[in-house]
Design brief:
Layout lengths: L4 E10 L2 E11 L4 E5 L6 H8 L7 E6 L2 E3 L4 H6 L2 E4 L11 H5 L6 E4 L2 E4 L1 H15 L14 H13 L5 E5 L7 H16 L3 E5 L3 H7 L2 E6 L2 E7 L5 H9 L20 E10 L7 E6 L3 E5 L6 H8 L5 E8 L2 E3 L4 H6 L2 E4 L3 H5 L6 H13 L11 H14 L16 H14 L4 E5 L7 H16 L3 E5 L3 H7 L2 E6 L2 E7 L5 H9 L2 H9 L1
Parallel strand pairs: 3-10, 3-11, 6-9, 9-10, 15-20, 15-21, 18-19, 19-20
Antiparallel strand pairs: 1-2, 1-4, 4-5, 7-8, 11-12, 13-14, 13-16, 16-17, 21-22
Helix pairs in contact: 4-5, 12-13, 12-14, 13-14
Length: 515
């Protein structure tokens, strides 16, 4: 069968880095071709070349009867190529309709003059939203949507124009299980229409259900292409990382309550908007505490309130028995609290700054005075701490002066972690710490979290990935409807228990656990 798109002998060289080396890749009509590899393997670079964002150093792209040495974004669009980026590219200030048709406005003739056909765009938006199961009006502002809903708007943008090839880069990273099932249904309908899907995901459990072929990249080179039905998950991991991945990271030490010191405590915390109500919990020294729950349960809202990013109605926070005033993020930083947010692109990184600036900013703020208004910068100190974190976290980059947006998602996450570690925190809250990160880098981060806990730094992990919580956490709290619904120790917790506790009322969960 002739390919819809074929990439031949693609090479991409950045200053000091060979990102892609003689890579071949294609996608056929009606197939889902999975693209795997660790962060930094070259997946995103290859797809940016296909979408016209990058021009390859060498190689060609064949689309039907045409051969290109590189695409412009316009040429890629004309060839029917759409891309859903891992980092959301929606415009919060615009409506859903405006986001879907941005750069592709529909027109009609009025007295022979072309004008924007707003009514037709609203009609088409309504049809698309019904197709993907997003129950909002076309004029709804995207800024009012949750992260998972914004992800569905990204999918709607790709579906809207009957694309021949749709690139989906981590499309399920922010979706609930119900939304994932709906996405897979959409993908299967697109396949029936002859659309080719390039599917990038680190959730290896998804691949058997949705993929036809899989290509693995490692260090910018192609390891191989296999039929999904002929390869196991373990074989794919071996192709990606070349080593066995550790699966359990729970503490081997006993967590007997009478032997443990409480290093962090939250008491009766309620947000002003009531998205969190009377939340109380504590964290032991040497422990990793997990938070499970459905999307929209209020877990991130709780963590943002603890950190002072959102106003509270009442509640107290104690670090090593000392009360911390909840009066803003700067005060939390000064008191040794760190928060790695869920939305890396919008609230985690400084996109216009270098790796050095991103790593050093928290340390500079912590040593500053007058709410961060007064303080001196020391370039040599910034270089030192940035290089220390780069080396200790194995951040793949050309140097600490490189812009952070040039890094893969996993390496950006390492930079964010390095920023907080450089500030010498007492408590670190990780909200979806491995979102969009490959299995090898996940293992590295899990080991690091365990090492931090053993150094007596308090660790809290919010995650939608139940296997992650079960393999990493010593206790797991189930959160729902803005309240704590249940609690399990890491040894007795199972996916079934966590799901059941999340999906029932607080009273039902307690009754079920006690029985």
């Amino acid at each position: 069968m002739e390919s819809l798109i074929e990439m031949k002998n693609i090479k991409m060289v950045f200053p000091g880095v060979v990102a892609l080396d003689n890579v071949n890749f294609d996608v056929k009509p009606g197939e889902v071709h999975v693209l795997l590899g660790e962060n930094g393997a070259g997946k995103s670079t290859l797809m940016k070349i296909l979408s016209g964002a990058y021009h390859p150093t060498e190689g060609v792209i064949i689309a039907g009867s045409r051969t290109y040495h590189s695409f412009t974004p316009k040429e890629a669009m004309n060839e029917g190529i759409s891309i859903i980026y891992q980092e959301l590219s929606v415009v919060n200030e615009l409506s859903i309709t405006e986001n879907i048709f941005i750069g592709k406005l529909l027109e009609k003739k009025f007295l022979g003059i072309p004008v924007i056909d707003s009514a037709l765009m609203r009609k088409k938006t309504t049809e698309i939203l019904e197709t993907i199961g997003l129950n909002y009006k076309p004029e709804t502002s995207v800024g009012s949507l949750s992260i998972s809903e914004k992800q569905m708007v990204e999918i709607a943008k790709a579906v809207a124009f009957n694309s021949k090839v749709i690139i989906m880069d981590e499309p399920t990273s922010s979706l609930t299980s119900t939304e994932v099932a709906k996405l897979f249904e959409i993908i299967k309908n697109l396949q029936k229409k002859g659309c080719g899907i390039i599917y990038i995901s680190h959730r290896l459990s998804e691949l058997k259900e949705i993929g036809n072929r899989v290509t693995v990249l490692k260090d910018g080179s192609c390891v191989g292409t296999r039929n999904i039905g002929e390869v196991t998950v373990d074989e794919l991991i071996s192709m990606m990382v070349g080593r066995t991945i550790q699966e359990r990271f729970n503490s081997e030490k006993s967590l007997l309550l009478n032997e443990k010191k409480k290093i962090f405590e939250v008491s009766n915390l309620t947000r002003k908007d009531k998205k969190v109500k009377n939340a109380s919990f504590f964290l032991y020294e040497g422990e990793i505490l997990g938070f499970s729950g459905l999307v929209g349960a209020g877990r991130s809202e709780l963590m943002n309130a603890i950190y002072g990013a959102e106003p509270i109605e009442k509640g107290e926070v104690f670090i090593n028995g000392k009360k911390m005033e909840i009066k803003g993020t700067y005060n939390s930083l000064k008191n040794g609290l760190a928060l790695l947010t869920e939305n890396r692109r919008e609230t985690g990184i400084l996109k216009n700054f270098s790796i050095k600036n991103n790593i050093s900013i928290a340390s500079n703020l912590k040593s500053s005075k007058m709410g961060g208004l007064y303080g001196l910068l020391d370039n040599n100190f910034e270089k030192m701490i940035a290089n220390n974190q780069k080396d200790s976290l194995s951040i793949k980059c050309s140097g600490i002066e490189q812009n952070i947006t040039k890094l893969s998602g996993g390496n950006q996450q390492k930079v964010i972690l390095g920023k907080w570690l450089a500030s010498n925190p007492k408590i670190i809250i990780f909200d979806e710490p491995t979102k969009g990160i490959d299995v090898g880098t996940k293992s590295e981060i899990y080991k690091l979290l365990r090492a931090l806990a053993e150094q007596k730094i308090g660790i809290i992990v919010v995650s939608s990935e139940l296997p992650e919580l079960l393999s990493l956490c010593d206790r797991i709290i189930v959160f729902g409807d803005g309240k704590i619904k249940a609690e399990f120790d890491g040894q007795s917790a199972t996916e079934e228990k966590l799901i059941k506790a999340a999906a029932t009322t607080e009273e039902e969960a307690l009754q079920w656990i006690n029985n």
